[in-house]
Automatic annotation (TrEMBL):
Keywords: FAD, Flavoprotein, Oxidoreductase, Transit peptide. This is Short-chain specific acyl-CoA dehydrogenase, mitochondrial. It comes from Oryzias melastigma (Marine medaka). Its EC number is 1.3.8.1. The keyword Transmembrane does not apply.
């Protein structure tokens, strides 16, 4: 757990929790926890429930830790209430967003300015590498924690949210899962502090959704790989210090001939196209990465040769949870803006929140938001439990992105003319929401993924 959470937990004591498992084998574990009386029942690894015995003074944090230790997986009961660690993380990120992001989000958007200071502060908090083990410089938490943090950060500033998402999910994620220990030390640790961010170079000018049709090539010459091609729509590109590049090492094998490479930035043979002038998330940079005889050492290959497509698809599964959380943040910010305005704005002698037409919009926004949040948390919990989550990640991304678009649209309708001007954040939320239905797999791709998984489940 990162220093942030150790520092904020307050008075701690050492307590021994004795749990009798169904096989009558006592298990004792020592946990540092806040002083708080608790008597609880927790799940055991076999799926049954054991009693927490005695009068130990344990916080809910401790019970959560014991349960996770014994069961080795998460339960969907956490969809009802987050563990204390995650509640603390959520509140910390919420406070940060209120204090450091919301006051400057419109300025960053207007000036297309990378939020460098905010990213460094998030790095110091452990948020730029939430899932990375502490020995590599990360927070050592899980994907549910990442989802919770991403939502709160994106509520404050969606541009900052996507910078955090790309660094965690798309850059660090594949290196953590497929990299060697040496690669992890070299390519992850410097990117945990917020001083550096990474990016993910998969899409190309001629293929976005069709990731298996990569035209970028990698040929081996002696002890080097030589990369040639153009990657398109690369988030963080102008501000990144490294990228994961996907290139074909054998065209005859089609998608099975794609490999992944770690490339520093800047680097000889690598250049950037123009910074795109976008509709939304304008404080994050987007540009093409152009590779012209770009030479990297042989040990720059990430994972086995020909495993690039697998790495990309598994990375995108996880990344979709991050984008779902970003979309939740946008949707929540839209609801916050609309509900607050509905209290303050009066018409016909009363706050407009008294009008049924406005109430129905707020109700629909709340349902869309909460439904998408539960889907997102479920996908994160399945991933943390090392269970298949491809379908759930696609569902979460689809539901959350469409909820963000819907909620931001409804917010402008509730605000009326005030929603259309930059004096209020509603118009920025509306612009930021649109991209969530496009990147890391369009809504159409999500529906294809979901349908494919459903058909597979029903296959005779």
């Amino acid at each position: 757990m990162s220093a942030l959470f150790r520092a904020r937990r307050g008075e701690e004591v050492k307590s021994a929790a004795v749990i009798l498992c169904p096989a009558d084998r006592p298990v004792t574990t020592e946990i540092a926890c806040c002083v708080k009386p608790l008597r609880a029942r927790i799940p055991h690894g076999c799926g049954s429930v054991a009693n927490l015995l005695g009068t130990s003074w344990l916080a809910a944090l401790a019970v959560s830790a014991v349960a996770q230790c014994l069961a080795g997986s998460r339960t969907l009961s956490q969809l009802a209430e987050l563990p204390e660690t995650h509640q603390l993380l959520r509140q910390t990120c919420r406070d940060f967003a209120d204090r450091e992001l919301i006051p400057v989000a419109s300025k960053l958007d207007r000036e297309h300015a990378f939020p460098a200071q905010q990213i460094r502060e998030l790095g110091a908090m452990g948020v730029m590498a939430i899932e990375v083990p502490e020995e590599l410089g990360g927070a050592g938490m899980d994907y549910l924690a990442y989802s919770v943090a991403m939502e709160e950060i994106s509520r404050g500033c969606a541009s900052t949210g996507v910078v955090v998402s790309v660094n965690n999910s798309l850059y660090i994620g594949p290196v953590l899962k497929f990299g060697t220990e040496e690669q992890q030390r070299k390519w992850i640790t410097p990117f945990t502090t917020g001083e550096k961010v990474g990016c993910f170079a998969l899409s190309e000018p001629g293929n976005g959704s069709d990731a298996g049709a990569a035209s970028t090539t990698a040929r081996q010459e002696g002890d080097e790989w030589v990369l040639n091609g153009t990657k398109a729509w690369i988030t963080n590109s102008w501000d990144a210090s490294a990228t994961v590049v996907f290139a074909t090492t054998d065209r005859k094998l089609k998608h099975k001939g794609i490999s992944a490479f770690l490339v520093p930035m800047p680097h000889p043979g690598l250049s950037l196209g123009k910074k795109e002038d976008k509709l939304g998330i304008r404080a994050s940079s987007t540009a093409n990465i152009i590779l012209e005889e770009c030479r990297v050492p042989l040990d720059s290959m990430l994972g086995p040769r020909g495993a690039g497509f697998k790495i990309a698809m598994q990375t995108l599964d996880s990344g979709r949870i991050g984008i779902a959380a970003q979309a939740l943040g946008i949707a929540q910010a839209s609801l916050d803006c609309a509900a607050d305005y509905a209290h303050k704005r009066t018409a016909f002698g009363a706050p407009i929140g008294k009008l049924q037409a406005v109430q129905f919009k707020l109700a629909d926004m709340g349902v869309a938001l909460e439904s998408a949040r539960l889907l997102t948390w479920k996908a994160a919990l399945l991933r943390d439990s090392k269970k298949p989550f491809t379908k759930e990640a696609a569902m979460a991304k689809l539901a959350a992105s469409e909820a963000a678009t819907f909620c931001s649209h409804q917010a402008i309708q509730i605000l009326g003319g005030m929603g259309y001007v930059t004096d209020m954040p509603a118009e920025r939320h509306y612009r930021d929401a649109r991209i969530t239905e496009i990147y890391e797999g369009t809504s159409e791709i999500q529906r294809l993924v979901i349908a494919g998984q459903i058909l597979k489940e029903y296959q005779p």
